[in-house]
Design goal:
alpha/beta, two-stranded parallel sheet, 8 helices, 249 residues, single chain
Length: 249
């Protein structure tokens, strides 16, 4: 991976899981990182651990006003981004019979609408040659029962990687997506399931992974930083699948 020294990278949902690991690795490669999230104390704790090359801004990934404020903050401080990792997201699973409008809207508001408008409002600080990375999911491909809303939201993200690539190419901005498989991150504790249900679900999923294990956040972070670096300059509108073979074997 090329050196990221002096590069400015913004990571949404950067205080834990994949976002935090990406920030940590990026700083290790010489980048300066800005992380966002909803919980100020968690962001403070994360930046304290990441060190002086990390900053934070409180921003709800589903709130368009927050994305406007984030863009204004970057512009007013003269910060140009070399890379933007749209990592923040939510995953909830349920059979269609139990899904209501709130369940549907919550996932699309964060995973799709918030992502889209964050890109829109940060365009002024994305320079020529910058890289936008979208965090999608293999659920968009595999037809897993009870994942209909989540999977549809991530299919929309993959579509955006292609359509926005065509739209932003004249600005010199590359857009690509990463589709992780099952990854050990705090998101699994936010699925709305009891611990027994979570353990049962995890066991069933692991049986479907040829490598016979869940991935870890660092493995996705490495893929994200590859797309952020000059090593990936010929990649545009692409999707990198990192899933231990679950969707491909």
């Amino acid at each position: 991976m090329s050196n990221l020294k002096g590069k400015n990278i913004l990571i949404t949902g950067g205080n834990s899981g994949i976002g935090f690991e990406t920030a940590k690795l990026a700083i290790g490669k010489g980048a300066k990182v800005i992380i966002t999230g909803r919980n100020e104390q968690k962001l403070i704790d994360a930046v304290s651990e990441l060190g002086p090359d990390a900053k934070f801004q409180v921003a709800d990934a589903s709130d368009i006003e927050d994305s406007i404020k984030l863009g204004n903050y970057l512009e007013s401080n003269g910060i140009k981004l070399d890379s933007l990792f749209l990592n923040a997201g939510i995953a909830k699973f349920a059979p269609i019979e139990f899904i209501d409008e709130q369940f549907f809207d919550e996932q699309f508001n964060i995973n799709v609408k918030g992502l889209f408008f964050t890109i829109k409002h940060l365009l002024p600080v994305l320079g020529k040659g910058s890289s936008v990375i979208l965090n999608a999911s293999i659920n968009a491909h595999i037809g897993m029962p009870n994942s209909s809303v989540y999977a549809a939201s991530k299919a929309a993200v993959i579509s955006l990687a292609k359509t926005l690539s065509g739209e932003l190419i004249d600005k010199g901005i590359r857009v690509n997506a990463i589709s992780p498989g099952p990854i050990q991150t705090p998101i699994y504790g936010k699925l709305g399931l009891e611990e027994e249900q979570l353990n049962e679900m995890a066991g069933q999923i692991q049986k479907q992974i040829p490598l016979n294990r869940f991935g870890n956040a660092e493995e996705i972070a490495k893929a994200a930083l590859f797309l952020a670096s000059s090593d990936s300059t010929f990649m545009l509108g692409s999707e990198i699948i990192v899933d231990g073979g679950m969707s491909t074997l």
